[in-house]
Design brief:
Blueprint: H1 2-18, E1 24-27, E2 32-41, E3 49-55, E4 60-63, E5 68-73, E6 81-86, E7 90-96, E8 100-105, E9 111-115, E10 121-122, H2 131-142, H3 146-154, H4 159-171
Antiparallel strand pairs: 1-2, 1-5, 2-3, 3-4, 5-6, 6-7, 7-8, 8-9, 9-10
Length: 173
Amino acid sequence: MKFKVFSLLLFLVTIKIHSKEREFIVMNNNDTIYGKVVRGTNYSNPSKVVFKIKDSKGKKSLINPKEVKLIKSNKGVDGECIIRTIYDDWFIKKIIDGRIKVYQLIDGVLFYTSKDGGEIKSTDFGGFNSRKNTHLQISLLIDDNPDILKEFDLLEGSQKNILYIIEKYNTYY
């Protein structure tokens, strides 16, 4: 498991070095396609976000979320960011990087978290979840830092405060 995580991190660092300004897609089979990434519209389901890529040869392709590990966007609607897929169907954008990563559903209010490179899980602090349940989910992520946990317990469980406490937690690691 550690070797897989290390290999993936090494792979991503290598890609980052070689693609400072280039947009690309990393497929599940680790193939990398360089080109221009743009957001498209799914005309049969306008609420669903789609991405397209125009490769270096000018070929345009719709990106199937089931086949994509990540997308590196630079100048699109989402700005410079990393976009992942969740549940083989939805695109999520990384909004906080660190030991705890926070992702937001593209064009949505739902949030997802991942700690220490683990599985990306729904942490619905932007949707319909109760504050008590949300507080419990976030507390479990930060419980290895008693000072941060204590501060979090004193805060109102708003989206702004949750993002603040996660960023503060990440500065310690």
